[in-house]
């Protein structure tokens, strides 16, 4: 009852063909072929991106804004964790003093 039942291995339903044996091949050296002619480089179908001073300034301003926003979010999260830890520590001290004061009165 408590012994596991092992599945039986299914039998193949068709004729099993053994794999072919691959023998070593011989390499016959030949004459080197002439190099293929080099095709000219294709012309790009879309224009290349050119950075003007205005677009460079916009990219720098956007990158600075992203860094400032991400930094503000990370600092606010760190501040929230620090405030939570300090409030938990104050609560622990208050509870400890109440328990000690109650024990001294008895």
Q: What does it look like?
A:
This protein has one helix at 53-105. The chain is flat and about 105 Å long. It contains one helix and no strands. Helix content is 50%, strand content 0%. The mean pLDDT is 84. The longest helix has 53 residues, at 53-105. By secondary structure, it is mainly alpha-helical.
In short:
This protein has 106 residues and is mainly alpha-helical. It has one helix at residues 53-105. Helix content is 50%, strand content 0%.
Low-confidence stretches: none
Looking at the structure, what is the overall shape? flat
Query: Strand content of the residues, in percent?
Result: under 5%
Distance between the termini: 61 Å
Number of strands: 0
Q: Kindly state the mean pLDDT as a whole number?
A: 84
What kind of sheet is the major sheet? none
Quaternary form: single chain
| Count of individual helical segments | 1
Structural class call reads mainly alpha
What percent of residues adopt helix (DSSP H or I)?
40-55%
Walk me through the topology.
Elements: H1 53-105
Please tag this protein with its features.
mainly alpha, 106 residues, 1 helix, 50% helix
């Amino acid at each position: 009852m408590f012994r596991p039942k092992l599945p039986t291995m299914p039998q193949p339903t068709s004729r099993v063909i053994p794999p072919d044996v691959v023998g070593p091949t011989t390499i016959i050296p030949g004459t080197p072929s002439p190099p293929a002619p080099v095709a000219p480089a294709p012309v790009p179908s879309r224009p290349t991106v050119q950075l003007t001073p205005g677009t460079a300034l916009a990219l720098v301003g956007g990158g600075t804004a992203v860094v400032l926003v991400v930094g503000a979010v990370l600092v606010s999260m760190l501040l929230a964790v620090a405030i939570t830890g300090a409030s938990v520590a104050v609560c622990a001290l208050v509870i400890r003093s109440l328990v000690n004061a109650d024990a001294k009165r008895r």
